[in-house]
Prior knowledge:
This protein is of the alpha+beta class. It folds into two domains: 10-95, Beta Barrel (Thrombin, subunit H), CATH 2.40.10.240; 105-295, QueA-like, CATH 3.40.1780. The protein has six helices and 15 strands. The strands form four sheets. A six-stranded antiparallel beta barrel has the order 3-4-5-8-7-6. Strands 1-10-11-13 form a four-stranded mixed sheet. A three-stranded mixed sheet has the order 12-14-15, covered by helices on one side. A hairpin with a 2-residue loop joins strand 7 (70-78) and strand 8. The chain is globular. The chain starts with a strand and ends with a strand.
Amino acid sequence: MANDSRVIPARLWGRKEDTGGRVEMLLLRSLDDACWEALARPARRLRAGMRIVLEPPPGRGPPGSGDDTWVEVLEGRGEGIVILRFPDKDPTEKWGAIPLPPYIHQPLSDPEQYQTVYARARGSVAAPTAGLHFTLSLMKDLEKRGIPILFVTLHVGQDTFRPVARDGHHLHQEWCSLSPEVAHHLTQARLEKRRIVAVGTTTVRVLEEAGRRSGWEAGKEHQPLHPFDGWADLFIQPGYAFKVVDGLITNFHLPRSTPLLLTAAFAGEDYLQRAYLEAIERGYRFYSLGDAMLIV
């Protein structure tokens, strides 16, 4: 099982119309035809009614070389989040760039390096990076071995960028989808006692959300897994009882991150700590473009 969400060019730059001060924006989700929820910096200095003149992304022209297209700040919602109104329905293709993680300091020679080979559904602001290890030839080889690869969708949102709060952390909603065809295949796999392996923590969240909605729990997995389209805020951390997923392919994650907590819940905290120590000793690469592990 893998997440087929595709990263959109969601990082934008501009300058405040009144002072010329620089503004950086990360679009999180579209609210309607013209309005987007976004992370902005510096958000504290953005007031309702303020206009931001958009500028080309770095490498597409010098600062100030735009065509005076502007966006309006509608409101601030705290934690750096603002609501913006654009003149265009989708400003990302013209004004946006792929939002690489902050620890990647050099632009990629090809933006497709930050997309999985099966990326299809536009909507993420970060790649489901466990899938970056898969090539078309590897997928064909798996299918020849009788291992079907099925897809769900979860559009990765801002929690990729937010460290876990020490008290009262909650996940913002992310949109996800499980099709009727895939739900049927998963139901059959469970009835036939075949293992369900998730590629990445985002895939786990879709499958476990489906299990929660379908009433799957120990002894009741014979019930059909229900398809769904909608918002999910399932926060998986140590102590969670997994309902659907039997195996997990995942990268080595940032400290104090929700993917790390999910992985610890699946593998067990002691086992995961030993795995990380061995990865450090052997020189494995961490984070988005790093190495991966299989947990079964």
